[in-house]
Amino acid sequence: MKQPLLAFNDKGIYCAQANVYLDPWRPVTNAIITHGHSDHSRSGHKNYITHHLNVPIIKHRLGDINVTGKDWGETFSVNGVTFSLHPAGHIVGSAQVRVEYKGEVWVFTGDYKTEDDGLATPYEVVKCDTFITECTFGLPAFKWLPQQEVFNDINTWWAQNKAEGKTSVLFGYTLGKAQRLLKHLDTDIGKIYTHGAVENMTEVIRPMVDLPPTTLITRDTKKEEIAGNMVIAPPSAHGTPWIRKMTPYVTGAASGWMAFRGARRRRAIDRGFVLSDHCDWQSLLESIKATGCEKVISTHGYSEIFSKYLREQGYDARTEHTQYEGETDEGETEQKDQREKEGGES
């Protein structure tokens, strides 16, 4: 039986011909990394290859690593296998990996979204024979509104809170979501303050994209300064002593999971905004069709349900288990990542 070009094993997604792993979750010699979230870029690998925009991000998170940056579409070969990176649209520097060997083409998406968020390089359709896709939100119930509508709601919420003399505290993952929120907030309403983890990651990303000014909250920041303004913080800051300085405050969270009834209540959040850095159901289907692929491998998310639907549509579809988490409470393993606390108060 012919060996597949990419196979899933206990370390990650493996190309045996090149002895290269894609987003491995255990230490390996050669790793191609799609993006900077900690479920996809882990420590311990000997050699890292990623898009050059992602290099400073993973260095910030992983420390001193041996990493090589590539441009979009730049090809590089290992033992006859040709690799290239293409925009995934998920967060800044996020890539899909195209793998070609003897005329056979596979594409691994990592995490991706097709809506242009104004920060990440927009998603690019890459033709292939086999498509490895995440399906974090692979249910018909997930249908995203255009982001401008969501940001109109967020800015209206902020203005209303300010009129009532309350500070707006908006939770979003430190890498990706926080910068997307910053990009689209209306600074005519007020100033934007940040938790230390958000500020530190934003400073890494500022040279790559245009973002509004932010003010780091420190031990010396007075509550009166923050009043009525916007605070961007990671979800892990909710319920900690750090947030008391915002009183009186109103909390909000931006996540695809806010589409579920009860999600806001379970997280003790005052207001939920449905905003995801992943594809919704329709975008997943459109992306797969656009590749022209015949085979689809679904990973993290509603993979079994999604694969079953694809088979009904005539695709050769199956699932594979990975250690990727998609968009979850632990989407960046925040409680485990000590870098999240840099510059912030406990």
Low-confidence segments: 329-346
Query: What's the domain count?
Result: 2
Strand order of the largest sheet: 7-8-9-10-11-18-19
DSSP summary: helix tally: 8
CATH A-level architecture of the largest domain: 4-Layer Sandwich
Distance between the termini: 56 Å
Radius of gyration over all CA atoms, rounded:
20 Å
What fold name stands as the CATH topology of the largest domain?
Answer: Metallo-beta-lactamase, Chain A
Mean pLDDT, nearest integer? 93
Task: Give the CATH level 1 class of the largest domain.
Answer: Alpha Beta
Content-based structural category: alpha/beta
How much helix, percentage-wise, in residues? 10-25%
* H/E element order: EEEEEHEEEEEEHEHEHEHEEHEHEHE
Strand content: 15-25%
CATH superfamily placement of the largest domain: Ribonuclease Z/Hydroxyacylglutathione hydrolase-like
Shape, per Cα inertia axes: globular
Protein name: DNA ligase-associated DEXH box helicase
Biased composition (Basic and acidic residues): 333-346
Keywords: Ligase
GO molecular function: ligase activity
Description of the structure:
Helices cover 21% and strands 24% of the residues. With 346 residues, it is of the alpha/beta class. It folds into two domains: 7-142 and 277-329, Ribonuclease Z/Hydroxyacylglutathione hydrolase-like (Metallo-beta-lactamase, Chain A); 147-273, Rossmann fold. The strands form three sheets. Strands 7-8-9-10-11-18-19 form a seven-stranded mixed β-sheet, covered by helices on one side. The chain has a six-stranded mixed β-sheet with strand order 1-2-3-4-5-6, with no helix packed on it. A six-stranded parallel β-sheet has the order 14-13-15-12-16-17. The relative contact order is 0.15.
